[in-house]
Amino acid sequence: MADDAFRYTTSKDGRVHIFHRGKLAKVLKGSAAQQLLERFSGGDAASAQRLMAKATGQYKFGNERRGN
Predict the structure, then answer these.
(1) Structural domain boundaries in the chain
(2) Which long-range contacts (CB under 8 A, 24 or more apart) does 15-18 make?
(3) Which member of 6, 15, 16, 27 lies 3.0 to 4.6 Å from 52 by CB, making a disulfide possible if both were Cys?
């Protein structure tokens, strides 16, 4: 996965806007947004990228394997 392909912003009403390469990919609200923010607090940048990829569905396309 490309470094920093995902980023997010939060709004005052508790929504989480997830962007993929500068374009809005998904908006989470309610408990889903809270759970994602709680998971961010315990990990590093790489795990945050994986969490955002999973939340948006932008993962597992078959080309994730890395050669040795």
Answers:
(1) 6-56
(2) 18/52, 18/55, 18/56
(3) 6
